[in-house]
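Homework help board

Subject: predicted structure for assignment chain

Our instructor gave us this sequence and asked us to write out the predicted structure in token form, then describe one feature. I got the tokens but I'm not sure how to describe them. Can anyone check?
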Amino acid sequence: MVVSVLMVAEKPSIAQTLADALSPGHKYSSRTGASPACKVHEYEGDFYGQRAWFKVTSCAGHVYSIDFPPEYNNWDRVEPLTLFGAPTVKQEANPKLRMPKHFQTEAKGCSYLVLWLDCDREGENICFEVIDNAVPYMSSAGSQQQVWRAQFSSLAPVDLKKAMATLGSPNKDMSDSVDARAEMDLKLGCAFTRFQTKYFQGKYGDLDTNLVSYGPCQTPTLWFCVRRSDEINAFQPESFYTIDVTVAKAGRDLQAQWDRGQVFDMPIASLFMNIIQDDNAKAVVNDVSQKEDRQARPQALNTVAMLKMASTRLGLGPQQAMHMAERLYLDGYLTYPRTETNTYPKNFDLQGAVRAQSGHPAWGSYSQQLLSNGLARPREGVDMGDHPPITPVRAATEGQLGDAYRLYDMITRHFLATVSGDCKFLRTRVNFTIVGEGFSVSGRKVIDPGFTAIQRSGEMEDVIIPDFKKGETIEIKRVSMGSHKTRPPSYLSESDLLSLMEKHGIGTDASMATHINNICERNYVKLAEGRRLIPTQLGIALVHGYQMVDNELVIPKVRANMEKNCTLVADGKAEVLPVVQHCLRLFREKFIYYVTNVELVDQLFETIFKSLEAAGRPLSRCGDCQRYLSVVDRKPVRMFCKTCNRIFKMPQNGQMKLYKELKCPLDNFELVFVANKVGKSYPICPMCYDDPPFGAREEQGKHWNLDHPIYKKYRPAVMSCIADNCSGTLCLDVDSGPKWQIDCNVCLQQLSIFEDKAHKIKATSDTCEECGSVLLEVIFNKGKSPLPDGELERKACLVCDEIFNTHTVSKTGKNFFRRNPGKGKDIQCICQGKGKGKKGKGGKGKMRRTQRVPLGGLWRVSTAQTFATGRGEDGGFGALPMLPVRTKNLVAELESVRLRMGDQGERSVPPFGAADPILGLQPPGLGPSGLRSDEQCLDIDIVQKVPVRGFCVSAARVKELRDRTGASMGKCREALKEEEGDLEKAVDWLKKRGVRSMEKRATESAEALLGLGLQQNGGAIVELRAETDFVTRSDVYQQTLRYLASTLAAAPDVAAGGTQAALEMLVADGPDRPAQLRAGTALSEALLELGSVLGEKLVLSHVHFLAPPPDGVVAGYVHPKFADSMPGTGRMAGLVSLLAPGCDAAALQSTAARLARHVVAAQPRFLSVGSISAETLRKEQEVFKAAYLEQVGPRKAGAVDEQVLKKVIDGKTNRFYQETVLPCQELVAPQAGASDKKPVPVAEWLQAEARQLGVEKILVEDFRLAVL
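My token output:
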């Protein structure tokens, strides 16, 4: 029986190398799989004694990447603090590659899976990504092991065959450590980055960076650079002095070295100088010594050492060097380039590696000499148990490798140097005295060059000095005093920075290069001459700001501890969840403290950077306040209105200027003209670009939307884009004359039409019957018309008309349009025209209809009075957004569509095929039935609304409706226009329209606020969510929240039932009820209606209720979220219930209120030590134990005394109680008259309060805590 074996490598090239090395006779077949990037190589062979059919394929890096769910990816609607507790999802790293489908398909029918991923933590993680997709679709292997793991470090055939013979199992712990680090880095980095990017970019205009990013590895890397910069700036130069003596011997001048080196006191240096310059002074030799010395050969090469050498010797950046090394590995020239080991294992075939270089033209003879003389034993180093050092596998020339040969040359020479002898030389030192002061002259002579003969950076030259004899007198030729100044240290080089990162445990050997590249790309440092890293003002301000708020945000110790925790997971000594939760809890507290004190960082930024107002230039007018918007041309490019205090995102590429002083018909903002370097230009409305009124929000900035009225007029649609894999539409650039062009609204595809022959081009309302493109009406210049008989005007299709098609050229170099029809060639075009066809037989060629024609037919309503030029008498646009209809039953579908024609009122559209009695128009290209003869499904656009002289709405009327409903100014104006000023109808219009849109929105909203209500029956905390903080700041929203909290606190039966019971509660009338919250309806319906007028969905997320115990009280506290928040609302809220029989209720209430403040500030997790579950305590103690053993080190961990370990764990457990258990916490709320005293535990404080109130004790019955 033949079994099927699926083998998966990390790269397609490795899969092909595997198939070639392992297939019998190097015979295998190849085919394409479900993924377009990864082929499948097949051959027949043996698998552990069974005949097997092997399928060798690969992935392309990680199959999945970690990210937040889509609802958490909106920066404007998600509070960064929520990201610490947000869920994460794994999604396809590159959906276009279809990797999950690829593995699922290939796994069907296979009994075994062999994983050939890179042998590091990342490789193990990819192993389990492949396992998750492949194993569920595989056939059973009975009781035998089904999933195997190959361990290899080289792609040499002998190493691959050895790995195939010694298969093992994948390591789940190593994979989990990668997931743990990825989740922590994602949440920490995104939370800090989002907050400070929005905060600082909203205030300063010359930051010169798109992201003010923070990273657990990136920021300590930047700290190293800034620390060195601070040392340089704080350096105070100091003068020092030397005595320089030149002696003469055998006709040569020799510079002598003073034994004292230098002195820092000028009078002392002058004293020595005067003594030596005495006329009777002589230089007498008192000792001549010779000693054989040696320079040790280098150690084997690991990743960090390779990157440092590439930077200092070759001038290559770490990331560039890493990419080169990976390419050399994939091509089979090097062993795996990601390793921390710098010593060769005992079974490593050094002889074979040197023999592979014996035929190289540059060092082949040296390799042969090494083999004949015997290899030197490599120096001992550190074996990290991952991969052997980086070693060349086979010889290669510069012609084979190109630019990567420089790195290959360096690595190969270094490898040969490690197995060469030490460099031996004879050192000669001559000591002599001048009036008691000692001086010396040194020389050397190479005895055996050893490794320096092959390693270019280690060559040694002889330093020859004459022969000296003890006791002889030497002529003093010159004596002088040198004056010098101490110099500051140099800025860190990439090599220096890599050493520091390795020393402090920042990043891994594979990720260090990425972190250095990131701080360069973020404009935190600049790369200077000698590959030295000089921090920018932005980088210095950030680091200094972090240090002012919390020094642990930047120092490497915290990140190093995170890496140690991940190592504990990889070694199987700790579980993933406790490690991740511990780190996130720590950084969440740091984040809250950073946000609270960000003004300290802001003070530094104010002294360095310009405000938005100072950095911007006025460009166009705001549609709300009619004052000028300023544009900041530095990236990120944005516009802002200082009056409205709003920032608008803008395109990041291109020059901007005012566009004809025209205004957007939707919001009255002046239009801006954007022209980029490739010649594509288009107008935009700042408001509509930042907050698109059409299409999905995630498409913002990717293209202009054809539904917008400014593009219907100034960039009218012509036809589908002809570029591959583009779903865009080619639109006429009405501003491009006399060199007319057509641009795609999505990609960079451009068409140049008619060169300079056309005087005017207009997109008509007619469409081509053959291809569906819009017909163009062209007026040519006199004397340049390509039309027969010198005609100047023609209306035709750009695709199907022979003359129009001939004068159309693609600017991207793709010849989709025929330039010379009738040559007998099958030239790809949208529609083949007349002339000779494929085989040159003449006649009319067949018309091939394009696969993408979204413009089936355009029916635009226009009248001679108002729309002949596309603009009305009032200067407005002639056509607002069209209503697309796609159906075969056109008549039935369109009878329900209504038109509003100014003073003509509403009317129905007549059936297709019949002329309109009022407008006098006939839909083009349709028969009496309203359908084309080919019965194809067409796109028909009709004008939904055509304003002639729109209803004038006064500002006072709009304000009145806004005050009544709380809706935005724009929606209030639109509602009043629709209902012709009727206030009551406008209110109903807002509700109906809003409720329909609210019902379609997602139930999760990003912003929230907490409300606290206290009544005799108990206390309630209510969490009400909205979509943006603009709504949560509004009075209507906060009044509603206070009303709900107060009402639920007075209704314990409802509040105890939770959120669902509260939503079913009827809204009761009362003095505290907001007018916008309709009484007598269910709360769920009332919130839906209120959200409709506010423009956002409101969600009652959580209800927390706490009832007072008998003879007890309930008190609460809420910490405000905004400075102007209403009392009783905030972002953190707590409730506490206390019991003290016989105590005065008012006095006990005061104590409870102070304890509630403590609960909000300290955020306890448990009511008492006894309420902590045994499982929770066990997991925490496991983390404590693992952390302590890691701290003492692997050598001492085995000898730790159990009693000592128990005491350490007990101490950490007590500390855990003090941090999380309410009675054990130190009281945060201030004590009366004890501001200078040491904080006391809550339990002791309650005992003191009980004595003061005259009761035996005060008991904490329960507490509730809610934090956003």
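Reply (TA_rk): Your tokens look well-formed. For the description, you could write something like this. The first strand starts at residue 3 and ends at 9. That's the kind of observation they're looking for.
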